[in-house]
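Review this chain:
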Amino acid sequence: MISVTPSEIIEHLYCPRFTYFLRVLNIAQHEDRHYKVQKGRQIHENKTKLNPKYLRQRLGVVAKHTNLYMRNEVLRGEVDEVLMLANGKAAPLDYKFAVYEGRVYQTYLHQLYCYAWLIEDHFGVEVTEGFLVYTRSRNKVVSVEISPQAKQVVRAAVQEMVAVTNENIFPKATKSKKRCATCTYRNVCPQ
């Protein structure tokens, strides 16, 4: 079985060819060039230093784990915050260097679904919601429902990634050609 990160699952769901270029052809994608990725990492580091014992009581938080690295049989990753809730459940919280525009992007949702899978396996508690903090909108907190079907989406993506990797499958590209414009593999992909 392969070991993947939430970012790799998100990229696979964005376009399955990410998996082929990264895992079959072993071409690094040089995401360090992306300003938002770097800025997001900086924000994560700063948040851990500011008021580390603060609990979001309005959300029903009774305890939290910060920058927690977890792994299960196929997935590994670090969650900004794992919130332990008064109702006995847990929830991931992720900081975004972004402005809230009235809707949550699929990439953010898929990331929360991955974190929910990790948290459930690590702590053995149910995860039915997650939270996003939009740092460029005065730290607006947005709650996201995480259903069993949503978690199944990322599990199914991992199965597809295994097939691409183990069977050397060159998958179809995304149907959205707009995505190709900013893809890190656009120079090597026969779109």
Observations:
- The chain has a mean pLDDT of 91.
- Residues 6-182 form a domain with the Lambda Exonuclease; Chain A fold (CATH 3.90.320.10).
- Residues 130 and 144 are 5 Å apart (CA to CA).
